[in-house]
Amino acid sequence: MSQFHLGWFNGAGFSLNGWGTPSFGTGYKPWEPDMFQDGIRILERGGFDFMILEDSSMVPETFGGSPEFYLNHGIMAPKLDPVPLVPYLAMATKHIGIVPTLTTGFYQPWMLARLMTTLDHLTKGRIGWNIVTATTQLAWSNYGLTQPEHDERYNLADEFVEVTKQLWNSFPASAAVLDPETGIAYSAADVKPIDFEGKYFSSRGPLNAPAGPQGSPVLFQAGGSPAGRRFAAKNAEVIIASCTSVEDMKAYYTDVKSHAVSIGRDPETVKVMFTTGVIIGDTDAEAAAHADRRREAFKKNYSMQMAGISNITGIDFSKLDLDAPMPELTTNGSQSSLKEFLSTAAPGATLREVLESKSNVGVMGFPFIGTADSIAGQMQDVMAEVGGDGFLFGASIAPEYMTAVVDRVVPALRKRGLVRTGYEHATFRENVMEF
Ligand SMILES: Cc1cc2nc3c(=O)[nH]c(=O)nc-3n(C[C@H](O)[C@H](O)[C@H](O)COP(=O)(O)O)c2cc1C
């Protein structure tokens, strides 16, 4: 089989990232860039294609109607803006792609287009954009706005992306003359207004920033619902998904790829990557025993589970009776997350039964458990079954875990010829589209 890609989803964003736990490396201080710089260097050694920096714009308070749980545990808040971290990560590395998360809910297209072009220059062509639509009213309230309905947010995002693409084309790199003989810097004839008038946005253009090495950032998106998948299939170059079974991965892959083809896209230019995490042991039995301990701990931590699902659905799960059958629930937040949360128990189950039904071993998406070599073999089998295009490790910047992945699992994958051993190209897009 051909090679597949590896990415890292820093799911905690620019936050405490495991502070107070053993995974927070010795000598690091919260809010300083050092741990992030060391983390991304480790990934680059391992030939990872990119690191995504998660983000959101609020202090959560859905669970229990208060920010107490979230702030006391330092989860999902506090959080700094990930965008200014990008140049620090770029200066620590040479090849790996850097993908901050920015929402179509609160930026203006012109502002975002210019910011991304600036970062494409500063990273020398290694920038990506994780497109999100802002799933909670709490975030919208911070901008004095009412959250649009779920599918409407994707329509808005669709138009947003259209405007930014036009803006990126409005000042092409070819406009550069930079001729010391004539003294001409840029050719005005090549820089054109876009005069975009849409339902949600209008922009005159042109951008005042000349295109960077990639022309535009590599576009990422994680649509889960039907509207989200359509958006991803239309706009994303790398689609990221969290699936907990091989069947779900296969169905997701087939669905978004066939939708992309049906609207005229070349499927080779749409990469689909699945969240994962590994539990590595010196023997398979040791790894399995470790996974069992983590599964039990995850199941019993009701508050952590409920705080997480409350945050992304906007439903306060602390208000539900643990021992009564679950009521019918709907959300204007992440629909696919709610569906997935409920799917592990039978219809009519109580909340306690739903929480106890989780077989999650504390990793995001699909787990691999065993020795490094057995994990490499399992990954190979899953990719062969699903069709592609790679795995996205979903975890904090945890230096100890990152080192284990890069120094144990990656060599086993390389031995099988499954992942890259170096970077062939100058830009992130060229590398991620190489296979
Ligand atoms: C791997 C992955 C990364 C994501 N990163 C973010 C993020 O940084 N910020 C955010 O607000 N949402 C993030 N999301 C949520 C998605 O943008 C989207 O809202 C979610 O997948 C639900 O989509 P749906 O409403 O179409 O089901 C992420 C989802 C996944 C699977």
UniProtKB/TrEMBL annotation:
Protein name in UniProt: FMN-dependent oxidoreductase (Nitrilotriacetate monooxygenase family)
Protein source organism: Subtercola frigoramans
Domain Luciferase-like: 38-389
Family: Belongs to the NtaA/SnaA/DszA monooxygenase family.
InterPro entries: Diverse_substr_monoxygenases, Luciferase-like_dom, Luciferase-like_sf, NTA_MOA
Keywords: Flavoprotein, FMN, Monooxygenase, Oxidoreductase
Annotated NCBIfam families: FMN_nitrolo
GO MF annotation list: monooxygenase activity
